[in-house]
Amino acid sequence: MTSTRRGAYSSSLTPFARADAVVTLDSPDMGLLIFSLNLTLDGCVDHQEGIADDETHAFFTRLMDEGGAMLWGRVTYEMMESYWPAVARGDEQAPPAMREWAVKLEAKPKYVVSSTRKEFPWANSHHIAGDLREGVQKLKDATPAGVLLGSGRLATELDRLGLIDEYKLLVHPRIAGHGPTLYQGGLPGTRRLELLSAQPLRNGVVAMHYRRAR
């Protein structure tokens, strides 16, 4: 997932009637939950440490186009909310790749897991409340095109529940030497993955695509 000023998903999911509703739709064509994030070689996920250029923004724009919905925790949502709507409106100066991302993000369904906030006024934003496993599983069931997860702390909790299916990570040629780091909250055991592809970008970033080994 892209960050705000320095860093860089048509939905089949019917919008909820209320912003604080839990997903209630069911579909026989369950979508995948795909975790995507920027990280350095030493696992730092500080959004200021990555390479934010047209190439990385284009990568995340393609991921957003392919997916049916976005999923974030509250902290990530608020970081995105503080900047990208202004870019989409044209109130913030931004290069074409960033503006394309912002306009598409405005239209994309955005789901937020939060126990402390219930109102999410940004366009097409919805609240997942209650049981985390049930809420996210129902979102997956209702989104055949897949759900793109872009929050590191939330990913830790969802990986503990076994809900993440694939990982599309951008590994940046940086050694940050500090945190926060990916999964620093810990998992109950080692997660085995299968490599599906590794694509180097011109800027030195490598796009890694893994599938959870079942």
Automatic annotation (TrEMBL):
Q: Which Gene3D superfamilies match?
A: Dihydrofolate Reductase, subunit A
GO aspect biological process, one term: riboflavin biosynthetic process
- TM segments? none
A GO molecular-function descriptor: 5-amino-6-(5-phosphoribosylamino)uracil reductase activity
- Lineage: superkingdom: Bacteria
Pfam families reported for this sequence: RibD_C
**Domain Bacterial bifunctional deaminase-reductase C-terminal residue range list:** 34-206
In Swiss-Prot or TrEMBL terms, this protein is called: Dihydrofolate reductase
What is the species listed in this Swiss-Prot or TrEMBL entry?
Krasilnikovia cinnamomea
